[in-house]
Design a protein that fits this description.
The protein has 395 residues and is an alpha+beta fold. Among the domains are: 85 residues, Thrombin, subunit H (Beta Barrel); 113 residues, no CATH class; 71 residues, no CATH class. Strands 1-2-3-6-5-4 form a 6-stranded antiparallel β-barrel. Strands 7-8-9-12-11-10 form a 6-stranded antiparallel barrel. Helix 1 crosses helix 11 and helix 5 crosses helix 6. The longest helix has 30 residues. The two termini are 22 Å apart.
Length: 395
């Protein structure tokens, strides 16, 4: 049977070992700060002059694109500042998408007009499609026709007007999206602002990364983790991921090998704490820490160490600051379903573990490793001395 001293030593040992659930806790803590950004877009392409030979009837025709884009955003300040992927919603992208949308419609209308002029009757759908394919063939396919329309736009033959670009943010737990204001765009990031306070945020650490470093890509939506490598970008100013992600609408969290959050994956580039500080500073914005995060982090630590009483208090405080915190609600339900286990000695042990864990969080990882080795040696010596005493008694 283990002695109280040995039991306490084992508790301290378990506190020093790197937790296997660091990544999982990072997902739980930061999941509420990854939000849905909905951008409502309306754009109009108008043919201003002859776009196709002998088809003057196309002049003045307009083609309206209406679309909703849903992309990820990350809350970076508790008073409502959010970053998202500007490459998906910038004006140049919308113009290109308007061209791709309108080009086949222009070809279709050209077929109708040409057929009416030639044969004096409306064209059916089958013939209209055949004419469209014929027209595309003249320009080496649909892509070539799109390039022709793009060239006409550059020459002023076609105009494109962005009539509407409005952003809304769907916070975790909220039924209705909240209107967002566009603040700035820089290095592929769009900075938005919503009128909310005490929000959960993605908390990144200032970290020095090098090309070739292994990182973990945490997808909070799919609740999965993938490994990747960092490389220098062509400009040399940023870091990129070695493996590309085809879905540019997602924002994923980047963790280092030790579970520290060091960046966000945005359009295959790594957005660091310095990048976020830079865009905030350029707009004279001071980052506001999240009291919601602080309370929820304490709740997670208490729950992890078995101190369910303190975890319950911290979760309730979390919900006073941010009533729609889904993860806090779920964890609170788990605690309420548990039997009162953390009383007496168990609660005392939990508090001791939490105390040492808080101290150890401030100690560099190298020192933790040295401490772990030292503790193992101490325990080994303790066990050896006990065995020797037993042998002496037998003698």
């Amino acid at each position: 049977m283990a002695t109280p001293k040995l039991l306490l030593a084992l508790i301290l040992l378990s506190s020093l070992i790197y937790s296997a659930t660091d990544i999982e806790k990072a997902i739980i803590l930061n999941e509420p700060a990854i939000v849905d950004v909905i951008v409502e877009i309306k754009s109009t392409l108008t043919i201003e002059s002859d776009v196709l030979p002998s088809l003057k009837e196309l002049v003045s025709r307009s083609y309206v694109l209406s679309a909703n884009k849903s992309i990820d955003g990350a809350i970076i300040s508790a008073d409502g500042y959010i970053i998202t992927n500007n490459n998906v919603i910038e004006n140049e992208t919308i113009i290109n998408e308007t061209i791709v949308f309108a080009a086949p419609l222009i070809a279709n209308d050209a077929g109708k007009i040409d057929h009416l002029k030639r044969f004096g009757k409306e064209i059916d759908d089958k013939e209209a499609n055949a004419y469209k394919e014929y027209l595309f063939g003249i320009y080496d396919g649909a892509t070539g026709f799109n390039k022709k329309i793009s060239s006409d736009y550059a020459d002023g033959i076609i105009s494109i007007k962005i009539d509407k670009k409005e952003a809304y943010v769907k916070l975790s737990g909220y039924a209705k999206p909240i209107n967002a204001q566009f603040i700035d765009a820089k290095d592929g990031m769009a900075l938005l602002k919503i009128d909310k306070n005490n929000l959960p945020v993605v908390e990144l650490k200032n970290a020095t990364m090098q090309s070739g470093d292994q990182v973990y890509i945490i997808n909070t939506d799919k609740n999965k983790t993938e490994t990747n490598l960092i490389k220098n970008s062509e400009s040399g100013k940023k870091y990129e991921l070695l493996s590309n992600d085809e879905n540019q609408n997602e924002i994923n969290i980047i963790s280092d090998k030790e579970g520290s959050l060091v960046g966000l994956e945005l359009n295959d580039e790594v957005v660091t704490k310095d990048d976020i500080n830079s865009v905030l500073a350029e707009n004279s914005i001071t980052e506001k820490p999240s009291i919601t995060n602080a309370e929820f982090q304490e709740a997670l630590d208490s729950y992890d160490s078995g101190n369910y009483t303190n975890a319950k208090q911290k979760l309730e405080t979390t919900l006073t600051f941010y009533p729609e915190h889904e993860q806090a609600k779920e964890l609170l339900k788990k605690i309420e379903m548990k039997k009162p286990e953390a009383n007496g000695l168990n609660e005392w042990i939990a508090n001791i573990k939490l105390f040492f864990k808080n101290i150890l969080n401030k100690i560099p990882n190298e020192a933790k490793t040295i401490g772990l080795i030292a503790l193992i040696l101490m325990l080994s010596l303790y066990v050896v001395s006990k065995l020797r005493k037993k042998d002496r008694r037998r003698d």
